[in-house]
What we know:
The complex is a heterodimer of chains A (about 325) and B (about 250).
Chain A: H1 3-22, H2 26-51, H3 60-77, H4 81-105, H5 110-130, E1 140-141, H6 156-179, H7 181-191, H8 193-198, H9 203-229, E2 231-232, H10 234-237, H11 240-253, H12 260-279, H13 285-300, H14 304-316, H15 322-330
Antiparallel strand pairs in A: 1-2
Chain B: E1 2-11, E2 14-24, E3 29-33, H1 40-48, E4 55-60, E5 63-64, H2 70-76, E6 78-80, H3 93-101, H4 108-121, H5 137-150, E7 155-159, H6 167-182, E8 186-190, H7 194-200, E9 203-208, E10 211-216, H8 218-223, H9 225-232, H10 236-247
Helix pairs in contact in B: 3-4, 3-5, 4-5
Amino acid sequence: MTARDLIPIAVLAVLAALLPLVVTSSTVLNFLVFTLIVSLGAQGWNILGGFGGQFSFGHAAFFGTGAYVTAILQLRYGVNAWAGLALATAAGALVGWVIGFLSFRSGLRGSYFALVTLAFAEVFRILANAASFTGGAAGLLIKLDVRPANLQFDDRAVFYWLVLAFVTATLLLTRWIQRSRFGAQLVAVRENEDAAKALGVDSLKVKLRAIALSGAVTALSGCLYAQYFLYIDANIAYGSWISVELLLAPIIGGVGTVFGPVVGALTLHGLGEVAKQFAGRIPGIDLIVFGGVLVLAVAFARGGILGLLERLRDRGRGMVTRGTKEVSHAGR
Amino acid sequence: MLAVDGVSKRFGGLMAVDSATLSLEPGGIVGLIGPNGAGKTTLFSMISGFIAPTDGRIRFEGTDITSEEPHRRAERGIGRTFQIVQPFAGLTVCENIAVGAYLRHAKRADATAKAREVARRVGLGAELDRPAGGLTVAGRKRLELARALATEPKLLLLDEVLAGLNPSEIRDIIPVIRGIRDEGVTILMIEHVMQAVMNLCERVYVLAQGRMIAEGRPAAVCADARVIEAYLGHGAAARLKAEGAAHG
């Protein structure tokens, strides 16, 4: 990675870190923390779905695993919350690897893979809802004990900085993927799996690495969710709402790009909040906005917001790459 | 270096390849010709590992590779191109070739340098930053060749790299293929363009209806009665001979 690759990430991270010094409203900080948690999960989705082209409809399987693993470890085994965070992330990688092994080895692709991931998430949701080990339908309440050692802070800004640090680390990870052999092979598998194999790419291994990484990052976001709200149940942790959010954000922002998931999550939740301000009495208005934005993105911005900006910039420079760009998007 | 021994492939009731045997010595260009539907591409797919043979063995440099995955064979040094070009359409030409170069170069800078070098060799030096999806047919054929070359193969399987090109494009690419041979890469090529086969190949195999019916120097093979009949139908060889005698 060169300085040019890192500077935009560093600048954005520093600017975002300064935000709590200006904004002290707890509503705004709440919104930012939640949006960043979604961004982090979406970044996880983007590794597998964006770079690897394996669209998962069930990333709740990882989000929920992260949330439940840290909650259960703390409540039932008295494990420290920070250790719980590390173990939850590892559990996400493991669950990802197992789901990947079962589905990729049988050659599942495209909509079949999407359906299988959805099925896994739903099975996990039903199991977590039924088993007493996971608190059943009542869910799990992490004990309120505000100490940094417990990953609980009396100042929301500290939690914001923590989540921001993880988002930044994942931006760097994604940039590294983009510039590495692993990333090149992953994108090659997305574009044409047979051609990749003929060039010596072990497509199964590459996809397994991608889904394990993806699962780890998304589990981390689930863990942070549990740690911030201190309560989870099956419909929150393994609910399809989060699967949908995690795939909507990258698609809106720019699938297979470094910043896409973050841009998408901020746009979606920003618009959702604005809609709630104006029409708060209509329940689910933010979901209607999500749907509208998705339709607009699919119709007018196939590369997401970042793809659209890039095209506008190219046109601004008077380049005639429009035609070729469209071909390249059609090929995805 | 490559020994295909009695390999067969059955698709349901169809015997696509019927105990074909072929062997290659290191160096040189060997052709694989035959009428449409003879099973040439199926045989290629079995050598490169995309289709498992129903019967028979394939050895590469003395090792049995019959049941190895395609990517393992690429690591061993078997490169292939696809008859129907398979570019990574969303990537640039340079990125396409770099995927091949990454097989032997783990670092991005090394892989990119290798990709640029290969691109220049096949005549894609000016198109490095173009999206592969925007290339012409001739460009895509060159890209297929470049990607396979970037894996630094010992054996290169070329599946109709000249098909769809016009005569001047063919003239341009023939020296490229010869250049690859001169660097010590063994080439096995499926080709319909007979001018190129005559020009390039030291030896050809003829496959018809899944069976290997002839093998030898291109000129000799083209005069072989069985080969003429495979292309032109039963009795064609005798008819041609009679006509030749009448005119002579």
